[in-house]
Amino acid sequence: MHRPVLLNESIEGLNIQRGEYYIDATAGEGGHLWAMLQKGANVLALDRDENQIKKLINMFKEDKNVTFEIGNFASIEQISLKCGFKSVSGILFDLGLSNEQLQKGGIGLSYKKLDEPLDMRLDKTSEITAKKLINSLNEEQLYKLFAKNSEELYSLQIARAIVLERKRREIKTVGSLVKIIKNVVTDSPNGAIARIFQALRVEVNSEYQNLESALKGALLLVRSGGRIVIISFHSLEDRIVKRFIKNNHLKQLKKKVIKFGRDHFTFERSAKLRVIII
Ligand SMILES: C[S@@+](CC[C@H](N)C(=O)[O-])C[C@H]1O[C@@H](n2cnc3c(N)ncnc32)[C@H](O)[C@@H]1O
């Protein structure tokens, strides 16, 4: 069992009471789920990625207190009601990707896997891939996509270079996109590469829209006094969470955002945890 990000802090934030009902909206590799079950919670474990859920079903087959569901947390309310979770004491959103998806996904989610195809779909039934976006959007559309989803400073120059390159050949792999970005951002390009990949992943998987719908649904599902715990990985995600808290006049248990990092995974450096009390 891998140890997920901010494990103790998020479990503490959920304030788990034995026998009560909770949702792990991003079950992933089951680290948080395992800890929730250890505390005696009844858990609905949800993930959009079918592979993750299949592995979890096998891993937790002895456990009677967990219900598994493949689905998008954008529909958390409908999914939960369908599974008999009508009012819950807490919901956990551990946003982003799991290590397994990054390392072994084979769909171009990590910019270090140069030979992988530019796919990035967590849900294989969706039609939009990163390759499709990169090869079909015009310069302005690409620029807007990068700027909106990652606030990368070189968005315009990178969009321009992509459109130039694809006149010569279709851009199909992680490596070919990385090369284009490196030609534009010659000095320390890693940040720009990470942000452009983030922007594409966010678009392909509608991450910001999903999060907005999920938070609205969560608000209807969590009982008074219950908790919504959110771990986010970049400022644009956190902005959505902050706006949700402000617009709904919600109370935060920890006003101070926790910054956290493990030195071997750079993407974890900016993880932030927010605990909301309903
Ligand atoms: C950081 S991982 C979660 C790790 C997990 N907490 C653990 O302990 O292993 C994020 C997970 O969220 C899932 N995910 C991302 N977007 C989702 C969505 N819209 N609906 C449901 N699951 C989603 C991903 O497939 C991934 O498995």
UniProtKB/TrEMBL annotation:
One of its GO terms (biological process) is rRNA base methylation. Keywords: Cytoplasm, Methyltransferase, rRNA processing, S-adenosyl-L-methionine, Transferase. GO terms for molecular function: rRNA (cytosine-N4-)-methyltransferase activity. InterPro entries: RsmH (IPR002903), SAM-dep_MeTrfase_MraW_recog (IPR023397), SAM-dependent_MTases_sf (IPR029063). It comes from the Bacteria. It catalyses: cytidine(1402) in 16S rRNA + S-adenosyl-L-methionine = N(4)-methylcytidine(1402) in 16S rRNA + S-adenosyl-L-homocysteine + H(+). S-adenosyl-L-methionine binds at residues 30-32, 47, 73, 94, 101. It is found in: Cytoplasm. Gene3D superfamilies: Putative methyltransferase TM0872, insert domain (1.10.150.170), Vaccinia Virus protein VP39 (3.40.50.150). Coiled coil: none annotated. It is an enzyme of class 2 (transferase). Its EC number is 2.1.1.199. Belongs to the methyltransferase superfamily. RsmH family. Specifically methylates the N4 position of cytidine in position 1402 (C1402) of 16S rRNA. This is Ribosomal RNA small subunit methyltransferase H. It comes from Candidatus Roizmanbacteria bacterium CG_4_10_14_0_8_um_filter_33_9. The lineage of its organism: Bacteria, Candidatus Roizmaniibacteriota.
